[in-house]
Structure formats: C-alpha cells, structure tokens
Amino acid sequence: MRCYEASSPYSYDAILMDIRMPVMDGLSAAAAIRRCPRADAAQIPIVAMTANAFDDDIAKSLAAGMNAHLAKPIDPDLLYQTLNDLIGNKEENPWRTLK
Fold this sequence. Notes:
Layout: H1 2-6, E1 15-18, H2 26-35, E2 46-50, H3 55-63, E3 68-71, H4 76-87
Parallel strand pairs: 1-2, 2-3
C-alpha cells in the first residue's frame, strides 16, 4: 500500500496482490487502493494470488475490488493470459474485471 501511495499515478500496469500478508491483508489493501484519491486507483488491475480458491474466496476478492483471482500454485500460462487480458492492449482492451 505504501509503495502504491508513494508512486506517481499510472506508474504500475497491474498489482499482483497476495491475500495473506502481515500488517494488512490483501483484501484490505485492495479495498484501500480503490478508495485512494488518485486518478488510477479505480482502474488499476489488481490480481489476487492466494491458496484460497473456493467460490467464497473469489467473491471476497472481487468484492474488495480485485479484477481477477488466481489460485496458488500459480500456473504461469494462466497468469500471463490474465495479465494480457487486463493490460495487453489498453486502447483495445480497457482495464476490466475477470470472473
């Protein structure tokens, strides 16, 4: 959260967010990013990366403002495809939510 807040808007193309982190969990961090008064806060793709893979966990990630939810161990091809879908070509494919 501190790194994001300290960066200039649009510095990052996406955020890969671990759900289980010390101090602030990923759900809280994603929600905090979405509440930031920055031009990119509502749009930057946030991808949950977690061992929690039940439907309820996915719903919590999306409700917190994340755009996608990937279960660990991360499949590299799925990660690349998800990132491509979210940021591959911003002009043709604006940031959106993947369910």
